[in-house]
Structures are given as C-alpha cells and as structure tokens.
Hints:
Layout: H1 31-57, E1 62-64, H2 84-88, H3 91-107, H4 115-128, E2 136-138, H5 140-149, E3 153-156, E4 159-163, E5 170-175, H6 180-183, E6 191-195, E7 198-199, H7 205-212, E8 219-226, E9 231-238, E10 240-243, E11 247-252, E12 258-263, H8 270-283, E13 288-292, H9 301-308, E14 315-322, E15 327-332, E16 342-346, H10 353-363, E17 367-371, E18 379-385, E19 391-400, E20 416-417, H11 422-428, H12 432-445
Parallel strand pairs: 12-13, 13-16, 16-17, 17-20
Antiparallel strand pairs: 1-18, 2-19, 3-10, 4-5, 6-7, 6-8, 8-9, 11-12, 14-15, 14-19, 18-19
Amino acid sequence: MDNNYNNSNNFYGQVPPQVPPQMPPMMPMGEPEKAQKKKLRWRFIAGLFLGILISASVVGGLLIFGIIGRRFGALTPILPTDNTYEELMNDDTVTKLEALDDVIETYYYKTDVDKETEADGMYKGLLDSLGDPYSVYYTQEELEELMNDTAGIYYGIGAYVSIDTDMGLPRISGVMPGTPAERAELQTDDIIFEVDHVSTEGMELNEVVSLIKGPEGTQVHLTLLRGSKKDTVEVDVERSAVVVPTVTTKLLGDNEEIGYLQITEFDEVTPDQFTEGLAELRESNIKGLIIDLRSNPGGSLQAVCDVARQLLPKGIIVYTMDRDGNREDYKCDGGHEIDIPVVVLTNQYSASASEILAGAIKDYNLGKLVGVTTFGKGIVQRIFDLNDGTAVKLTVSDYYTPSGTNIHGVGIAPDVEVEYDPDAYAKDKTDTQLEKGIEVMKELMGN
C-alpha cells in the first residue's frame, strides 16, 4: 500500500563505515594493478557491508499495504545493538565475496563492469533471499521513479498493468478514461506479448512498465493477445501526460437510481475524491451503491481507513499483528454508516487495501460481494529510507479483517460468483460482472 514520501536531506555518512579486515587477493597480478584492484574491490565490499549493516538495523518507517510501495518517511539509520551484522559479514562471507570479485575481475569477458551496479545487485539479492516477493530493495533511480509517480502525473499511455497469473505475462488490468490507451482502444485483459517488438516473457512488472513509459509525444508499439482465442493485435499508442484519477462515478439502472463508484487505487487523494463522488451520487437520490474494486492493487492504509469510515458502523476496520504478537487496531466511529444497500465488485486482482474494504463490508453484512475471489494479500509492508537515496520495503506483519480472518494466500470469496467474459465485452461492451452486480442490487432494493 502507498505511504507518504518525506524526502530527507540526511545521508548515511552519519554511520561510521566499518570495513572488514583486508584479505589477500585470490589471483596473482602485478603490484600496481593489484593495488588498484584491491582498492576497487574493498570499496565495493565496504559498500556492500555498509548496505547490509544499514538494512539490518533500520527502524521506524510508515506502515504500508499493497503490491508496490511508493512513499516513505525519513529515517536515520543506526548501528545495530546485536551481532546481526557479524552474522552477515563473517570471515567466510568476506572471503567468498573477495573470491567472487577476483573471478569476475580476472575472467569475465567484459571489462566495463560497473561496481555500483554489482553492489545494487547484491543488495537486491539480500532481500530476494527472504523468499518474499513484497520485500524489495530500491535503487536511487527506482526510488526517484516511485517518487515521480506520487505526483499523480506521469508520461505513458494511461493503462493499469499487472502480471497475468495464468500466462505469466503482463496484462492490461484497466484503462483510464480520456487517455491514449482508451483512444487506442486497448481493452481490459489484453495480454501484452511484446513492447516495441521486445518479448515481455520473463520480465518483471516494473521492467514492462518502464518500456511502456516514455517522453511525451513518442510512440510505443504493443503486440497484444486478445480474447479467449488470444488473437494477435498490433497497435501504436502515443505517450502523453497522464493524470491518474482514483475515483470515477456514474448512474446506473433504468431510473438511474443506482450509484456506481469505482476506486482504482487508494492514494492520498482518494478519500477526498470518494467523498466528492459519493456526495454527487447522493444528490441524485440513489437508492443503492455499487463500489467497483476490481483490479484495485491497494494503496495507503490511511486512505482505505478514511474511505471505510464513510461507510462502516462503529468498530474495527482492520487490525495488524507483528511477529511478537503486538496488535494495532484501526477503528471507525460509525458516524457515517451508509444507509442504502451496497454491492462490491471484486476480481482476482483486487488486492491488499481493496481487500481490507471488501472484507470489512462483508464482515459487517453491509453489502454483497459480486465477482470472483480476491487476490489474497494479507500481509503488511513498511518502507525504510536508508538516507542515501535508496530504500528497503520489508514485510513486517499480518493483517486481519474485523472478524479476525487473515486472507493471505486465500482471498475473500464473493457472495455471488460470476466470471468476467472478455469476449462479451469485446463484442458489445457487456460487462458480465457489473450486469450481475446490478441484478443483485435490484434484489437488495426490492425491485
């Protein structure tokens, strides 16, 4: 989930670098070359050591939920009080790092190896070793990109992209209105097979997104697989400045008495947008509300709680539990409990913060969930600023719905199950899940 950026000017030079004892080189070489190589090697290993030291000792940070964290609170790293760094950087580890560095220096067929890139790879490897896809090391460039995203404006095509769990390829999970993606007639569930004729197979999501983004006015060529038959579609999309809306509304039903409110993510601006959108719908005298959380990947914990407080009765919205059993409750005073029927649309890409809202509505019997079982992300991340332009996101606890259910790896099952039919939508824009949601809402309204 998203969290707040607080760009600090403090640097990790406050931490005294502690370089391991120098080890003899593994490969013989001339004295001047040996001295130079040893200096570069130890600069690299010292950087790695300091990175591990800081990663093992960070404290504080802001609670986040979601697939991608974006903002973070400032943090001054401190030296650990235990022997964590000694366990990570013992004599065997140092010797092996030297051996690896010597082998690369002596035998690797390219000579332009970037030591900073090598070090970043090892920092990432340290986080990867946890076996947790949500614990991530961010380089300075990656962090700057995330910070740019928080401005709400980026240069791209205006489509939400996620990884299709069946095919292992990126897919269009949503198209923003009024954007190049909509003008190019991209569709939800289009599989992105190639970007500028480069295969996306095996790519991480951030790699695909970086290929799609680019300078305003330039074009990106997408090769798509569409529909159940996976027909190949080639399309050129011109990039432009995209302002990301998080809430959209419209009126549905024969008499326009059903309010439809879609939340694409939970950002800082979402609670205000939700308030305005719901107020506009209530002014139209709606008799029921459909909240669309499909393909919503999550966002800010504060944001989803602020939205929930405009809907839920008095009680717990969600609570978290860390590894030591410490519990933190997030509560609602019940002052704005909704008084009309609610239907929530979910799919397999509704994750994290969206599952918090859907789970609370289901637990309090405020409405019916329609669609398919949600993604199932019931764990919490924090982002720690390392104060050198980089950051670490770590999983720190589990979260539970008001009834005490942890949905991690399981998801939230709908009350009424219905699959989305991409062929029906491609044929005549029929949204099978939304149509079922309207049908369920009419039953709740007594029509």
